[in-house]
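A further point concerns the way the authors explain their paired sequence and structure data. Each protein is reduced to its one-letter sequence and a matching series of backbone shape codes. An entry of this sort, consisting of the sequence and the corresponding backbone structure tokens, reads as follows:
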Amino acid sequence: MFDEENATLCSVCGKDLSELNDPKDPFKRIPCPDCGSTIRSHFLTIKCGIGLSVAVSSEIKDNTGFVKQEDRTWQGYSEKSNRPVIISKVIDRTDPNYTKFHHKVEEWDEHGIIKRTIHEHTDVAPAKHRPKNEGEDL
């Protein structure tokens, strides 16, 4: 994501002296091959890209306010390939005996078209944090 450029120029004639590997002490520097000056100008350019990410989330609650299902989808970047991905997470608590967690990561191209599923799994765990008097089903 970061791109960096360094340059060292002769301050008198402007010749690029980046390859000289001059010491920092001006009295020990190699003179410029064009004008003989030991005065240098150092330039550092740093470029950084900033992206916009969109996230969509929703919750379905019963009449007691208990969250029966949570859905979240967002854009990100793959840690392995550094390519854009769409990540989705669904937590389903509609069954009082267990909670189902579904996770999916899909790689997409520059046009927003899904290319392939990188990662997908569903885990089931015993239900936790249920209200004592559970309300109606969905």
User: Anything to note?
Assistant: Residues 55-126 form one domain. Strands lie at 2-10, 40-48, 55-61, 67-77, 84-92, 98-108, 114-126. The mean pLDDT is 83.
